[in-house]
């Protein structure tokens, strides 16, 4: 599919209408973290006004293409660290810039608040993707594969 118009939206009220479809696609690929994102949403983590919790949706030509979040790192409580989590780009939207735009928004959001961001890349492709934003491989923290410093 060719790239179309991409719109990034910070989600604050309700999950996108197409979230179930996106979650099902992720599960079919063996990714359960979108389900975890839904559970975190249900607990209200993204609604209480804490700027450290931010959920973004990327829409391509009006259709939900990707989601991703910035949150406190659940595995490292350092005050100067947030974690990029739950990033999923639908298969038909990969390699057309949607993920790059979403990733840039997540990095910008996180670094506006703290000087360090962590993440756990699911595979070598994800590692290469995040290294393109300046993340460096890092095994110094718990359950993280990469770290970015402002």
How confident overall, as mean pLDDT? 93
CATH architecture: 3-Layer(aba) Sandwich
Physical arrangement of strands within the biggest beta sheet: 1-2-3-4-5-7-6
CATH topology term: Aminopeptidase
Describe the global form: globular
End-to-end C-alpha gap: 34 Å
The CATH homologous superfamily is called Gcn5-related N-acetyltransferase (GNAT)
**Which ranges are low-confidence, i.e. pLDDT below 50, for 5 or more consecutive residues?**
none
Strand content: 25-35%
Helix content: 25-40%
SSE series: EHHEEEHEHEE
> How many domains, as an integer?
1
Care to count the β-strands? 7
CATH class label? Alpha Beta
Radius of gyration: 14 Å
- Mind describing the biggest β-sheet? 7 strands, mixed
Determine the number of helices (DSSP H or I, runs of at least 4 residues). 4
The computed structural class is alpha+beta
Q: Care to describe what's here?
A:
The chain has four helices and seven strands; from the N terminus they run E-H-H-E-E-E-H-E-H-E-E. It is globular and about 35 Å long. The mean pLDDT is 93. It has a seven-stranded mixed β-sheet. The protein is of the alpha+beta class and 150 residues long.
